[in-house]
C-alpha cells in the first residue's frame, strides 16, 4: 500500500515537474516532452494519468504513428520528430508537433507546438534541418463534427534548444552582408538588418554565392539577392542577439551584383552597390521615362544615420516621354569624410504633384571614402 501511494503521488506530479529518466538509450518514444508548460515522460510512446483525483477519465499523451528521423541541429547526429496527441478528459483531441534531439546518452524531447484540435495528420518529414508536418483541417466556419478536408503544411525549426513554428515563407529581395561577425539581410522596404538564421536551409548557398561574387570587394560589402523564407525571432545569444529579427532563408532564388529594390523601373550602372565613392561622383544608369519629370530626377546621398550629405539631379540622355528605359547621367559633389563610412545613394522618382502615393525611390548602399588629407 505504501508503494502504491508513493507511485500514485509521483504520477500526479509528473505533468508539472517530471524528472527526466536515465538518459542512456532513451529513444524518442521514451523521451520527456513539454506540452503547454507541463512535462510528460513517455513510456513506449504513451503517457496516462487520471484527469482528476478519483476520476475515471484519463489524461493521455501519445505518439501518433511513428517518429521520423533526420538532422535538426547541425551536429551530425540523427534527431527525430513526432506528432503528439493529447487528450485531457474532455471532447478535444489536440495534435502537437515536437522534436527529440539526439545527445550523448539518448534523445531529449523539446517543447511541443500546437497544430490544432481534431485534425487528420498526413505526414511528418525532416529535410534541410526543418520539420514539415502535413495534416487536414477545417475552415474557420466549419464545426468540429465535419470531416477535415483542407490540406495544411506547417514547418518548424530547432533553435536555441526550442522548437519554433515558422511563418509561411515568402519571396524577399534585399541586401546580404556576410562575414565572420556579420550575417545580415536587409529586405526591400525595411530599414533594419535581420540576422540570417543559423538553421536556414539556404545558408550554405548564400555564403558560397556571396564569397564568389564579392571576392574583390571590401569586407561586408552588400550584395543584392532574392531569397525565399520567413522572419523569425533572433537568437538569444551570439552575434545574432544584437538584431531585432532574424530571417530563415529556405531558398536562394537569385543573385544580382547590380540589382536594387526597384530594378523593374530603374537600373544603376555606376556606382555599383558597395562601391567606395569619392567626390565628385559620376552617376549613370537607365530608368523608365515615368521616373523623370522635365527630363531629370533627384539623387540624394545620406550617411548611415540618414543624414543628408548632398543633393543633385541626373538628366535623361534621350527622349524621356516614354515608358521604356532611358539612359541618364549626372554628377554629385560632397565633402569627403575624414574616414570611410557607410552610406546610401537614393535615386528618387520625380513627383511634381502633392500626391504621396506617386512617390517612389530606390537606395544603393555605398562606402563614402575618405578623400586626400
What does this structure look like?
The protein is mainly β. The chain has 3 domains: 165 residues, no CATH class; 87 residues, OB fold (Dihydrolipoamide Acetyltransferase, E2P), CATH 2.40.50; 103 residues, Immunoglobulins (Immunoglobulin-like), CATH 2.60.40.10. It is 7% helix and 48% strand. β22 and β23 form a beta hairpin. It starts with a helix and ends in a 5-residue tail after the last strand.
Question: Can you give me a brief rundown of this structure?
Answer:
This protein has 373 residues and is mostly beta strands. It has helices at 2-17, 203-213; strands spanning 32-35, 38-41, 46-50, 58-70, 79-87, 94-103, 106-109, 113-117, 120-127, 130-137, 150-159, 162-166, 170-178, 183-187, 194-196, 223-232, 246-256, 266-270, 276-277, 281-288, 296-303, 308-316, 325-332, 341-348, 361-368.
Strand order of the largest sheet: 18-20-23-22-21-24-25-19
- Number of DSSP helices? 2
Uncertain spans: 1-23
Shape estimate:
elongated
Determine Rg (CA atoms, Å).
28 Å
What keyword list fits this structure?
eight-stranded mixed sheet; 25 strands; six-stranded antiparallel sheet; mainly beta; elongated; single chain; 3 domains; 2 helices; 7% helix; Immunoglobulin-like; OB fold (Dihydrolipoamide Acetyltransferase, E2P); 373 residues
